[in-house]
UniProtKB/TrEMBL annotation:
Keywords assigned: Membrane, Transmembrane, Transmembrane helix
Protein name: Peptidoglycan/LPS O-acetylase OafA/YrhL
InterPro entries: Acyl_transf_3_dom, Acyltransferase_3
Keyword Membrane: yes
GO MF term (any one): acyltransferase activity, transferring groups other than amino-acyl groups
GO BP term, pick one: polysaccharide biosynthetic process
Bilayer-spanning residue ranges: 12-34, 54-74, 95-114, 140-159, 171-192, 212-235, 242-257, 263-284, 305-324, 336-357
Pfam families with a match to the protein in the record: Acyl_transf_3
Species of provenance: Sphaerisporangium rubeum
Domain Acyltransferase: 15-352
A GO term from the CC aspect: membrane
Lineage: Bacteria, Bacillati, Actinomycetota, Actinomycetes, Streptosporangiales
């Protein structure tokens, strides 16, 4: 990155908000095409191959973006409890509503509730347990919030430490996070055992191996810290070496790389290497007010709904096929129509959840109650905001 005078933090970055929806759409594409959820036959094989790593890519983007925007929008003199309150009211109301809906759907379809995994999911600690049942119980996409919860708890101290580091130290920190991302799959391959899962990759990997690189919060924290470091560099005036369009092309090429490397590398945080430059480039594009395809009104509005979209889409792509696809002899047109219906339903439910749950909670409980000088306007913050 090239250096220029320090950038005032707090400026709005609408391109990052628009990119949030693109990432959420990747996760939807993965879940709606995995194992022929909607489309079967040769077309299903093609879609499953194309989007086979889209969910992993989207979640990694959310983890990097979360670190970036939290650092970017950090308020001078803020306290840890204030940060935690804002993040809690951002994620937990949506989580609680979708958790209750997931429980109702399980009961409606005569499925049993596993007590301990259910409690773990309610309190967002399910990703700490190396048992396949835990992160897949209730609204399965909420596992990423379990990781985000750790990130949020550590953020005040991480930020305090990074604020004391000069540019050279920031680059060394970024290199250390990249090393963690690359070493984790190696550790998982050679140091972790378990019973292989026949339906994952080539059938040679255990859930414990996948859990360590994909679900385990301390390992995924490297992507969050990488996003924080990128924000600190941009704030300090170190611009990314490439503009937005080349950075987008790097991200697309990186997806091809992730789809071809060994499975544990592809599902781990390797995507952060290709996505962090995109996040930084999009932020600088907004600061310079240059052209951006992600800054349009529609993309920004969809980006505002992206967390709600993420939280509802897993339920839609699970239960809609269960009721309307499985056991039916449907033609290609009908299956495509149901896939479009699923996307439309996700958008409708996301709008409702954002409008009637997320926004009121943030307005009511997320504002800063202090007599101090008003802070700069915060950047819209994502979770996973993955699986993101």
């Amino acid at each position: 990155m090239t250096s220029s005078p320090e950038t005032p933090r707090g400026a709005r970055l609408p391109s990052l908000t628009g990119l949030r929806f693109a990432a959420a759409l990747l996760v939807f594409a993965f879940h709606s095409t995995w194992q022929h959820t909607f489309i079967d036959g040769a077309a299903g094989d093609v879609l499953g191959s194309v989007f086979g790593h889209a969910g992993f890519y989207g979640v990694s983007f959310f983890f990097v973006l979360s670190g970036f925007v939290l650092t970017w929008s950090a308020r001078p003199g803020d306290t840890a409890p204030r940060v935690w309150r804002r993040r809690f009211v951002k994620i937990y109301p949506n989580h609680l509503v979708t958790f209750v809906v997931a429980g109702a759907l399980l009961l409606l379809t005569a499925q049993q509730l596993a007590p301990w995994p259910t409690l773990a999911g309610l309190f967002l600690v399910q990703s700490w347990v190396p048992d396949v049942v835990y992160p897949n119980t209730m609204n399965f996409v909420s596992w990423s919030l379990s990781c985000e919860l750790l990130f949020y708890l550590c953020f005040p101290w991480l930020l305090r430490a990074l604020n004391r580091v000069r540019a050279r130290g920031l680059w060394l920190t970024a290199a250390a996070m990249v090393a963690v991302i690359l070493v984790a799959p190696v550790v998982s391959t050679f140091a972790i055992g378990g019973t292989p899962l026949p339906f994952i990759a080539d059938g040679s990997l255990s859930f414990e191996q996948i859990w360590f690189v994909y679900f385990f919060p301390p390992v995924r924290a490297a992507e969050f810290v990488l996003g924080m470091v990128a924000a600190r560099l941009v704030i300090a005036g170190h611009r990314p070496p490439i503009p937005l369009l080349p950075a987008l092309l790097v991200a697309v090429a990186g997806y091809a790389v992730n789809s071809s490397v060994p499975y544990l590398f592809g599902v781990a945080g390797l995507a952060a290497l290709w996505l962090t430059p995109l996040v930084a480039a999009a932020a600088v594009t907004d600061l310079r007010a240059t052209r951006s395809p992600f800054r349009g009104r529609t993309m920004v509005r969809l980006g505002e709904w992206s967390f709600a979209f993420y939280m509802v889409h897993g339920l839609v792509v699970t239960y809609l096929p269960l009721w309307l696809v499985q056991g039916r002899d449907l033609g290609a047109a009908s299956r495509i129509g149901l896939l479009v219906l699923a996307l439309a339903l996700c958008l409708l439910l996301a709008y409702a959840l954002f409008t009637w749950v997320e926004s009121p909670a943030v307005r009511r409980f997320g504002s800063r109650r202090t007599t101090a000088a008003p802070p700069t306007a915060p950047v819209p913050v994502t979770v996973l905001e993955a699986k993101e």
